[in-house]
Each structure stands twice: as C-alpha cells, then as structure tokens.
C-alpha cells in the first residue's frame, strides 16, 4: 500500500518547503516535487495545508489506578483521541505501586496496549522502590526496549521513592544510559501543609494549590538536580509549571547538570483561577503540580521560544467530574488529580501559541514532536519528515475554525476543561506508519495497528 501526499507545505523543526511525500509500506520513501503517483496509491491533496511529522506526547496516563479509582480512558478511546488530535505516538507512564513487582507491572501495562492501540506507544518505567530484586528487573525491562525511568518525589507510600532509592535509581540509569523522568515536588512539605489546611477547615479545590505552592515544586527540582549532579545521570523534569521551578532547572543546567524540561499545554493556557471556580467546578482543574498564577504563562511560552523548555506534553489523566472528582467533595486531598487534554494539545498549541506569535512553527514542531523523539531515543524514526522515517504524518488545515466541546471529544470523559474554546486549524488527515487513521476529525484507523516501540538507551 502506498500514499502520496501532494502539494503540502512541509514543516519540520528546521525546514519549511512545498513538496510531495511518497509513503510506501510503513515508511517515507521519497520527498520531491511533482511525484507521479504509483498505481493503486492513495493521493491526498494537501494544497494550502501544512504537513507536520506525527506528534508525540511524552507524558500520558491511559491505564492508571490512582487515589482509589481508575483513569477513564483505555487504549481504544485514548489512542483514538490522540490520533484525532494529531498525536501518533504516546509514551505512557507505567506506574506500579510501591507494593507491586516492577516486571509484573511492566507486563500489565503492556497488556493494556498491545492489540488495542491504534497509534504507536512506549513507556517510561516507573521506579516506586529500589532494592536488589527491583534492580535486576529494571535491567531486564531496559533489555526489552525501555530507555527511560519515571520517579516520583511526591506520593510517598504509593509511588514515591526515598533519597536512598533516588540515588540508586539515578546511578543505575547513568550506568545503563537511561534518562530519568521525574515528578518534582517535596512530599514532606505537601503533607504538612495539607494537614494544616484541613485542620483550619479549608477543604475546597482551591486549597490544592495552597498545599503545594511554587516553592514546593522548586524545592523538588533543586533536590533532583543535586542528586543528578552527583551521579551524572540524564534527567527530564515532567510537568514543570512555574518560574521558581524553571529557575532551579536553568541554574543546574548552567553548572553542567544534564536536564531537559517539559511543560504542559494546561500550564500554557489555564491558570489557578479555574481551580477557584465555585460549587466544586474547580475540581475539574485540580492536578499536580497545580495550575499557577497567570504570570507564569508568559515565562513558559518564552522558555519554549528560547529553548529553556524543551517539550510540551499533557500528563493526560482522565477522571469523570460527576462520579470521580466528588471523592474529594469535602477534602481537596482526595480529588483525583488530572486535567485531560490528550486530544486538544496540538490544536491549543497551534491556536494559542503559533497564531498569537508566542512561538513559531518550527518551535511548535520541535516541542511537540522532534525534541521528544530525540530525548527518548525515537529519532529519526519518529519526529521528522525524511526518507526512511516512519510514515507518521499530520496534514493540518490552518483554515479550519471550530470550538472544543465534550459533545464531540473522543476522550472517555464527561467534561472538557476547554469547553467552548475556539480553535484555529486542526489535523485533516493523520497517518500512522503509512495507514490513514483520521480524516476530517473522524477516526478511521484500526485498533491494534499501533506498535510497541523498542528504544535503545543513549544517555551515557
């Protein structure tokens, strides 16, 4: 099977030009002007449209037991939502609890995706404890094609590691060439502040932010950076939300620490006033780290533009507003955390980033695709448009105008955090390894087409 995409304006992290793209089988085989379509090839006219490399979300939760409940999406709904939004590859956080076996956890997460996902996928392997048995299993998991770990400096007793485990995880990662992704918040400060707020009768969703203000996140980043500096491990800060935390990462980078920074589309577009909405509406906007003061948005956009922030993810973690968020009706610490946006990331980043002049098209592609692929050992198979790369392509219509709504979303959720928001542009055709998966906002792909992407560690 072959696909010929004609007359589109190809945009990568570094180039922009008009040409045709021939895809044969699962890969891109030729890029040129005026390519004659092979027999039986499907021809897609992309005149007046952009053609981007398939986007990669480096931070999602599709399957997640958390806070006494389960995330709502599975790899059927999750991969459909991703693809409709232009994301062709997911990297999920595999998060076995501290009491669980690491290898069994990895195999459990694999079973959720294999044979179901319509897009390609990989995992960051969660390290929720570190002992001799776990170390042996982590080595085996890396041999099976995982090149990144995930650690939590929060959620002590559930997923979080202590300092000895943190040090040993980073040492192992350095030895194996694995990059360590990290949730950076100081767990002790959070726990103490939560107790104080609840004791004072402050229980509503807005108090979530007060329990983990910017200083708590900044301390978590500083803590990780100290350990990374002493071990030499490559690190990646997930969901960075504020200036105070970014300052700590930049300072560490200046003294030679190997650190990349991820922010989220939520932090670029929403602020903490959303979590302060009355009548428990704010629960829709509870996540960790929390939404911050609006002043942080400009800092994060500028960080993307200037290369201080490398990637934009979602931390997609869907919990229903009517049946799951109310677990914390009288206690904000029990609200399941997450602001789902897997489907909306690219449209929001384009509309409120590129169209407003905050970032250019190359930064857009780099932050949502190319840099992710490079950081997590997928480049140049993913993250670019060149012969030999996988035929993951997004034909993007910049002239489309629409609104986001729960009524039309593919995520398995009873609300949208961006209800009624206007978007300018959307994917009109999306391909995954040479197979058309989306046409004009409708999923037309095949579940099970998605492959587990084996990755070889490179961060020595």
Q: What is the helix content?
A: 25-40%
What gyration radius follows from the Cα positions, in whole Å? 21 Å
The whole-number mean of residue pLDDT values reads 97
Shape: globular
The span between the termini is 39 Å
The largest pleated sheet is described as:
9 strands, mixed
User: Please, what is the oligomeric state?
Assistant: single chain
Give the uncertain stretches in residue-range form: none
Count of individual helical segments: 12
Number of strands: 19
- Beta-strand share of residues: 15-25%
Structural class: alpha/beta
Task: Lay out the secondary structure.
Blueprint: E1 2-11, E2 16-24, E3 27-32, E4 42-45, E5 50-53, E6 55-60, E7 65-66, E8 69-70, H1 75-84, E9 87-94, H2 102-113, E10 120-126, H3 132-143, E11 148-152, H4 163-176, E12 179-183, H5 187-199, H6 207-211, H7 214-231, E13 235-237, H8 243-254, E14 259-264, H9 265-269, H10 295-306, E15 311-313, H11 345-354, H12 361-375, E16 393-403, E17 422-432, E18 435-439, E19 442-443
Parallel strand pairs: 1-4, 1-5, 6-9, 9-10, 10-11, 11-12, 12-13, 13-14, 14-15
Antiparallel strand pairs: 1-2, 2-3, 5-16, 7-8, 16-17, 17-18, 18-19
Helix pairs in contact: 4-7, 7-8
